[in-house]
Amino acid sequence: MADDFEVKFTGLDELQIRLEEVRTKYPFREEEILLKLGKTLKTMAIARTPTGKHKKHLKSKYKLSSVYYGQGGASSISLTNTSPLFHLVEKGHVVKNKSGGPTLGFAPGVHMLENSMLEMDNVVPALVETWLDSVLGDLK
Question: Which of 42, 51, 97, 122 is deepest in the core (most CB within 10 A)?
Answer without folding.
Answer: 42
